Amino acid sequence: MSNASEQGPTEGLRGRLHEIIFEAETPAGRAFDVGLLWAILFSIIAVMLESVASVRAQYGSLLLGVEWFFTGLFTLEYLLRLFSVSKPLRYARSFFGLVDLLAILPTFLSVLIPGAQSLLAIRVLRLLRVFRVLKLSHLLGQAEVLLTALRASRPKITVFLGTVLTIVVIMGALMYVVEGQENGFDSIPRAMYWAIVTVTTVGFGDITPKTAPGQFIASILMVMGYGIIAVPTGIVSVELAAATRHAVDNRACPACGQQGHDLDAHFCKHCGHGL
Amino acid sequence: MSNASEQGPTEGLRGRLHEIIFEAETPAGRAFDVGLLWAILFSIIAVMLESVASVRAQYGSLLLGVEWFFTGLFTLEYLLRLFSVSKPLRYARSFFGLVDLLAILPTFLSVLIPGAQSLLAIRVLRLLRVFRVLKLSHLLGQAEVLLTALRASRPKITVFLGTVLTIVVIMGALMYVVEGQENGFDSIPRAMYWAIVTVTTVGFGDITPKTAPGQFIASILMVMGYGIIAVPTGIVSVELAAATRHAVDNRACPACGQQGHDLDAHFCKHCGHGL
Amino acid sequence: MSNASEQGPTEGLRGRLHEIIFEAETPAGRAFDVGLLWAILFSIIAVMLESVASVRAQYGSLLLGVEWFFTGLFTLEYLLRLFSVSKPLRYARSFFGLVDLLAILPTFLSVLIPGAQSLLAIRVLRLLRVFRVLKLSHLLGQAEVLLTALRASRPKITVFLGTVLTIVVIMGALMYVVEGQENGFDSIPRAMYWAIVTVTTVGFGDITPKTAPGQFIASILMVMGYGIIAVPTGIVSVELAAATRHAVDNRACPACGQQGHDLDAHFCKHCGHGL
Amino acid sequence: MSNASEQGPTEGLRGRLHEIIFEAETPAGRAFDVGLLWAILFSIIAVMLESVASVRAQYGSLLLGVEWFFTGLFTLEYLLRLFSVSKPLRYARSFFGLVDLLAILPTFLSVLIPGAQSLLAIRVLRLLRVFRVLKLSHLLGQAEVLLTALRASRPKITVFLGTVLTIVVIMGALMYVVEGQENGFDSIPRAMYWAIVTVTTVGFGDITPKTAPGQFIASILMVMGYGIIAVPTGIVSVELAAATRHAVDNRACPACGQQGHDLDAHFCKHCGHGL
């Protein structure tokens, strides 16, 4: 629950700051987290609104002010984080340290490189900071079960994705030959993009087969896509059922200490000791 | 089964009315429910037909008459409901009380504010009144199992929806930068709309990536959308299996104490003792 | 396995014909079934090819000949079926009797009503005759398991479809008001068609929301559609698991004769007798 | 693990070559496999890039050189394979032997038949050669479980696909009659293509119903497609659960005889006896 062990225990002002900023067990720590959550959400809404041409035309200066306000706030927070941890460099190079830096950098850079509209979009990465706050919530346990299920499914999902990719490459090349440039399939990569659009049942319709053989091949691809969606679903169902089952029983053997016993087990399956 | 306890038992005419209008155990009550069901369905069909320009042009006055007929009917019903319950205000402020009011209000308001076409569409909310009638049906048990499964899945589904939303925000901002205004991605919210269209495999095709990097990112998003649909499906399958299992039985055999008997079992399947 | 009991046992020529036409246990009966299967498939391919303008222009007279050949064949078969059963009227009014008649009627009617192109399309219903032949195949058991699962899921699927329909009606009316006639949502039924296209994740893109609020509502509808597909999938998975489990054990109790015992049952759960 | 038994043991240079080319247990054999994997991937990327008009215009001669380099490499490899096996003809006629030949043939043929662009696309079949290398990897076990599940589901999936095909044929013919040529449904095969696009929820939108009855039928088809996706998913889930379970264990306890132990169990979980 506590991040203290990560950055090492600290004392005095730094220790107090660390408790507020990095932990959520004290009222001040919890208030800081809630405040941060709202600041992140509002700043992202501001970034989004700024990207809408009509809103930027009318409220451009207001949004600029809001942006600098949040950038100032996040800069202050970043400096306080650097100050409150015992190993600032280790924090700065951690995943969340980089995300924290990316949350403020684009605004400063936009002064140096004017017109760098695309830089500003990086600021939506602030959203990732929400996970820093949420990692202390009760949803974590559920996320853990989901992750366990997905991790256990990884080899099967790799096989599945490999099969899908093979189908996409071969079907894409086939459609490039059959339909050709005049129907929008003007290169194998583009035909592969079409094959992905089709096999995932997205079906934008920006490129569509026009010839009879092309429509026949497309039909086969669609039925394949419609059918093989069953495979990852089945995989995750089975692994999730296993993850849920295992989550229920977490008894450790009193003799050998090993876990992973079934719910109906009366004896340790590793050493035979009674549970 | 009876709603009487909700509004309190009443006597005489009010009691009789309450029995007919709110309950379904007497022949009169059941007849009232069936009649109401048909009235709701016909009035909604009339609202739908009225919205079709060609039908309105030809049968406009007939539909207006039908509309006022049903409004009169539902107004009478609403007044009778108010009269027959012991606490009319409590009924009026309940969910179904508000739905009952919304079913008649738009027609009356359309006289005061002529041309308020959009007001009339509110009348399709009458459809919600169907659930008032159906709540006494045999489908309720099944709906209960489904709801139990969905309620148990809620934390997992929250985590899942949060992940999808994060993907949508970040992918939307990325596509806004990569594709830009000239390809239809003219703001982050619109690019997010596109990302939702894509990740859910709907794929309208009103906005599509035109550049090679845009199509590459879109391909990744599509495969993600195609794959992560497996997660809610797996979640609901597992929870539904649990909800169904619990609905089945939890009797233990009085002789050997083992559980897991079917609902229709009269004897223990392990030792043959009567349950 | 035998249909004889259905139409009653017959003797002599009629009995022999019945055996060949309706049953599949003799070599002649099996040969008849296989021949019929090919005749059905070829006649349907001919109907399909005839509908293609360019093929009709070139091979029109050949296809007409093929059509009359198959019509003659199926007419002969129909008359033989009528002759070989003991109750011809009962056969003629049965489901497959009507399908057999519909397989030949359109061709004869096309002589009386020339140019009735649409009549000819009815002939694809000949495809249903395939099921008459296949009903004796080894796939029947599998179809039975699937049907048992779907039948057991029916109340849950009814609740599910009712919910989807309610969402479609209310979302359709909402989009009719929000987007309006100028964006293609020109009536509530059309807006409902759009809502079905969206919630089922088909996403044709023939009608799409153009306004920001419309795209926001559409996003919610898409996420709903993406999520609630999990519900029928979960339902069918659970019921199919149950149907498969029950299909495995089909022991009847020696004492009371009742079935439906679990695989691990040693005693009848109905009467307690040892299995 | 070893392919030696397939082609028979060989000695001297041939035996050494066989070990390197066909097996992966020696460091040289593993290095050969990794090198081959990279050669396949790079040659496929080259084929893809060559199909892009703008890349071909600029780097055409470079890509031609790359192509001939890889063709030379694969030709050398093919000859070495032919030399190192004891029965070259048997190898040449095997599936992977043909794939190996198809990987080099198109480039040579492109000299004889100039401009045969489509021939070059055949070279993406080189991708299939990846599976030759990967068949020794740890993913094989997972693929085996998936294949077992799919094989067990085959009769059910046949029934399912047959039902989908019947729906597609009948709905296609119906839409051909209802919508007709003027709305893009200009033949039954094209209308069937549309029905597949719709029932699989792909929804390109290249052909869409324009009339009210057509949109109504399309709505039914979409809801069917949305619902029946649950069937293959349920089938695969159930079979995958069974395949996973069987992969786990079928040891019985020598003391109490009960089964259902985990793969890593050394002692019976019911009585504690060593397994």
Automatic annotation (TrEMBL), chains A, B, C, D:
Q: Its topology with respect to the membrane?
A: Multi-pass membrane protein
Q: Which SUPFAM superfamilies match?
A: Voltage-gated potassium channels
Per the record, its GO cellular-component terms are:
voltage-gated potassium channel complex
GO molecular function terms noted in the UniProt entry = voltage-gated potassium channel activity
* Coiled-coil intervals: none
Ion transport domain: residues covered: 30-246
From the Swiss-Prot or TrEMBL record, state where the protein is found.
Answer: Membrane
Q: What is its main location?
A: membrane
| The name this protein goes by in its record | Transporter, cation channel family
